[in-house]
Task: structure prediction
Amino acid sequence: MMFSMVDLLFYTITDGKEMIPFSQFISALRKTGLLPSDPRLRHGIRQMRQSAHDSSGPVMIDKKLFRRCVGNNVILLTNAFRKHFIIPDFEQFTLQINKIYESAKHQEGGQVADYIPQLAKFSPDLWGVSLCTVDGQRHNVGDTKIPFCMQSCVKPLEYAIALHELGSERVHRFVGKEPSGFKFNKLSLNEEDKPHNPMVNAGAIVISSLIKVTSKILFKEVQLINKYIQTRLSRCSFQSERETGDRNYAIGYYLKEKKCFPQNADMMAALDFYFQLCSIEVTCESGSVMAATLANGGICPITGDRVLSAEAVRNTLSLMHSCGMYDFSGQFAFHVGLPAKSGVSGAVLLVVPNVMGMMCWSPPLDRLGNSVRGIHFCQDLVSYFSFHNYDNLRHFNKKHDPRRRSDDDPNKSVVNLMFAAYSGDVSALRRFALSAVDMEQRDYDSRTALHVAAAEGHQEAVIFLTEICKVNPLGKDRWGNTPLDDAMQFGHGVVVSILQKYQNEYTEKHSSSSSEEHSAALDSMKSSL
Ligand code: DON
Result:
């Protein structure tokens, strides 16, 4: 019986069963971090559901249906189930995230912003955290489906789009790269009469005038980051921002007086566009995918679309790191060591570069304008996990690193394989086979996984290693014993008969194939003579 990669994947998911309920398939998927709504999987899942409708009784997934629906997702699912995503043990990771979430939930204090009714209407108890990894693994806890305005969290995205479209040199002709040391809405410019950076209002307003597309198109671009998830403009917030935006108008006139805008720029249009950007509504769920696009060098993890250049993303992360958290930026860089941007709605967009993006949201703000629970969460996250930019990952570290470690280490691979065989863990063996681990590799005593499984009397493991993996049963360990010798020595009768049968078939097949090869070689010699 020959097994294809798809079959091996199927049995890894079903844990060796010939069919499983659809719901079980979905929960196995969720454990890897993939959601059934993932745009990459949507088509296949829809097909599976469709066949559900066509059948009576509970929907079962068998090999045939799986093969039919899996389509282009073999690689994605294979990586998910052989634990090759950036966070391999996603379930464990999210348990810890939930604990950190719970601890932050108890943080009372802070004030909900009330300068516009759209912000004041939110309950101080709302609290949500969503994350999306660079492989598109997703987790949501708390109030993650409630829309809120991005407010200043949009500034890094606006800046990134400007860099992507115009390049860093052009953008920085109009805006600096240093923290201002002042409040975000201060009427202040640097020594060259430019806004201090793109994360304060003056910088964001000038950038609004630089982007050479109409607001409508740019909106589409912002949504591009999030093509498959709904974002929309809150017209009420936009109107209120306009009506209460005296300070921003003052900044606009100041910028105009100091000739900060490019020639022929329309200051009022730039302000309007800035107000619109602040009024884009997201949820924690959609915001985390935006953050993950920044974590992933500009490629949206769940669509695979490149929406920003790698250089635009790198520059954006640098300025988020130094200027993203108002007057708390220095302390945040010190304690948390990650690029982030907060907004007056209580949102904190957090990026763990090359790992994941997060959106934390809770309306009560501290004295400096940052979400009280958001800050608490970020600090706890980095005290537990080694995500701080300057955490040392090579030497002994008391913190936890949930990232995938390189499993290229052959010693580790053989130990894991032997351990799985010793404990009869067929699921693990299946995962190793799916990961193209050499199932015939030998340990220090020249023993294979088949020796170990046979000596322990694990019938299922022996069947898997022989029938599916076609491991050579004739290999001898350093004492000259084959797996069959071991099964006999330890008195595992059933395993003895499985191995005897397999050994006979194996010897027969290999002697006939070698005589076929021999006669083919003779034929070719004859024809060349
Ligand atoms: O400019 C304003 O007043 C707001 N719409 C933006 C507020 C905000 O989140 C502050 N950020 N730096």
Summary: The two ends are 39 Å apart (CA to CA). Residues 410-528 form a domain with the Serine Threonine Protein Phosphatase 5, Tetratricopeptide repeat fold (CATH 1.25.40.20). The pocket of 6-diazenyl-5-OXO-L-norleucine is lined by residues 151-152, 184-185, 201, 241, 248, 278, 343-344 (CB under 6 Å).
